[in-house]
Amino acid sequence: MTQLFLSYSYDWSVIPRSIAFFERGIGVTVRITVLSVAFSLVLGLIVALVRMAPGPLGLVGFFYVQVFRALSLYVYILFIYFGIAAAFQIDFDPITAGVISLTLLNSAYMAEIYRAAIQAIDPGQREAARSLGLGSITTFATVTFPQAWRIALPSLVNQFTDIIKDSSIVAVIGTPDLMYQTIERVSFYQRPFEFYTTVAGIYLVMVVIVAQLALRLEKRLQRHLA
Fold first, then answer.
1. Residue 52: domain span
2. Using one digit for the tens of pLDDT, what is the confidence trace for 54-65?
3. Could you write out the three-class secondary structure of the chain?
4. What is the CATH number of the domain that holds 146?
5. Quick check: is 67 in a domain?
């Protein structure tokens, strides 16, 4: 193994020659990530509220969470891109299929994050708001949710970073994201170590940037809370 490692002839010059491909791939990855995060945040909150509703509606939310957390993202992407297209004659483009898959998976996890955060708020605050004449929607929007958001933020950030990393799987359906561009360059230059090391570094940088921005936002929210 050591001999094989030492005998590999490194050629890092292929990386600067492929910058344009990396830039295109990063652009697609960022687009998929931003759309998936936005849709997951909204859908996750809706599912959380449905999940906490009494009766059959709550069971629908429970079923949604269990189903979409049970299967892997790889299965979702292939099912939506190939299975749904064949069964219902819906022609998804790769980016749309990737965003839908990431949204379905992550909204289920975010729903549980939201639910736990909302339930952590003292019920007495909601009762006090209603005693002041605020309606249920106004109470949730102005009293419950702002506090729940602060509680949920650290866990939501973990989901944000998971979306960045999981977005690489959309390459399997031909989405021209960062991983797809890397695979194409590896095939062209036959330089797997250089390209996969570089793409690992790019994903690491993106995750660190998101984590740092979220940390600053969390500190700002804590200052306002204090």
1. 18-225
2. 888 999 999 999
3. CHHHHHHCCCCHHHCHHHHHHHHHHHHHHHHHHHHHHHHHHHHHHHHHHHHHCCCHHHHHHHHHHHHHHHCCHHHHHHHHHHHHHHHHCCCCCHHHHHHHHHHHHHHHHHHHHHHHHHHCCCHHHHHHHHHCCCCHHHHHHHHHHHHHHHHHHHHHHHHHHHHHHHHHHHHHHCCCCHHHHHHHHHHHHCCHHHHHHHHHHHHHHHHHHHHHHHHHHHHHHHHHHC
4. 1.10.3720.10
5. yes
